[in-house]
Amino acid sequence: MKLRYHAEHRGDHPSWIYTAHVSIEAESHRGRPAWRRSYRLEVLNRPSGPDSAPDNVIEGTIVLDRETMAPLEARSRFGKTRSESIFRSDRVEGTNVAEDGKVSHTAVPVQGLVVTDVWAGFDLYLLGLPLREGFQNRAAVLYYGDKPPRPFHLSVERIERIHVPAGDFDAFRIRVDPLDGDDRMRSTYHVRTDGPRAVVRKEYVVNPITEGPMKQSTGVEELEAIEPTSASDR
After folding, report:
1. CA-to-CA separations, 118 to 144, 195, 204, 215, 229, in angstroms, rounded
2. pLDDT confidence bin for 231, thresholds 50/70/90
3. Average predicted confidence (pLDDT) for the chain
4. How confident is the model at residue 232 (pLDDT cuts 50, 70, 90)?
5. Per-residue model confidence (pLDDT) at position 56
6. What's the pLDDT tens digit per position in 43-96?
7. Residues with Cβ < 8 Å from 181, sequence gap 6 or more?
8. What is the pTM of this model?
9. What is the distance in angstroms between the CA of the first residue and the CA of the last residue of the chain?
10. Do the Cβ atoms of 191 and 215 come closer than 8 Å?
11. pLDDT category of residue 215 using cuts at 50, 70 and 90
12. What is the reported pLDDT for 234?
């Protein structure tokens, strides 16, 4: 399945507008069925300043176990910085390369299933849940690469009709609320109810307030196009 989203980040910084190209493919990973989710961001405006988007590569890939939706490995590039994560049963091992080429390594202890944030595999995790009105769940989300997973509460509030550039869809409205007092990544997802499941809209808090170098910022992504590539796609 290939999806294209129109996306914007707005707040106390120059607006960042981009197209997100996402592909989801079934594959075998070390002998086990897996999903590979890849994304590439095409920046449509290039505001200057320290909070602007980099003018080169913004992309990443995550591989998840197809049965449990547990992440197996992830890679990303944001400008000149690169990161790689390997998910073990008891820890997440990370390697990061900074803009200046400096390499650092992390090992974050984890217990049970963890999922990754809004830019990586969280949407696939949602699609694998038994969604219905009133459904609730709790998830440990790995948001900071060098810190323990954060606790989030998920709840399907209702089914509603939603309009996005790709058309009108009946969708589950899903609230994703952090439970640690930090409003970063508080999100609302809309997942279509019929046909191959897909996220048609997501809105999230990047930073709730301006504090030091961190600027208040929110993001929204709306589906522009969806293209099934095989009968096995979600």
Report:
1. 12, 23, 8, 18, 23
2. very low
3. 89
4. very low
5. 67
6. 888 666 655 555 567 899 999 999 988 899 999 998 889 999 999 989 999 999
7. none
8. 0.89
9. 8
10. no
11. very high
12. 43
Helical ranges in 106-147 per DSSP H: 122-127
CB 32 within 8 A of CB 73: no
Residue whose token pair is 């790709």: 166
Per DSSP (E only), the strands in the chain are: 2-11, 13-29, 32-43, 58-65, 71-78, 81-87, 91-97, 103-109, 114-116, 136-142, 150-164, 167-178, 187-192, 199-207, 217-227
Q: Annotate 54-88 with DSSP letters as a single string.
A: PSS-EEEEEEEETTT--EEEEEEEETTEEEEEEE-
Q: Is the dihedral of CA 38, 107, 65, 178 positive or negative?
A: negative
Note the pLDDT of residue 51: 53
At 230, the amino acid letter reads: S
CB 41, CB 58: distance < 8 Å: yes
* Radius of gyration (C-alpha) of the chain in whole angstroms: 17
CB 79 within 8 A of CB 98: no
User: Are β-strands 114-116 and 136-142 bridged in parallel, bridged antiparallel, or unpaired?
Assistant: parallel
C-alpha–C-alpha distance, residues 227 and 172, integer Å: 20
* Domain residue limits, the chain: 2-227
- Alpha helix positions (H), 178-230: none
How would you classify the pairing of strands 58-65 and 32-43? antiparallel
Cβ–Cβ < 8 Å for 93, 86? yes
Tokens of 226: 């969806």
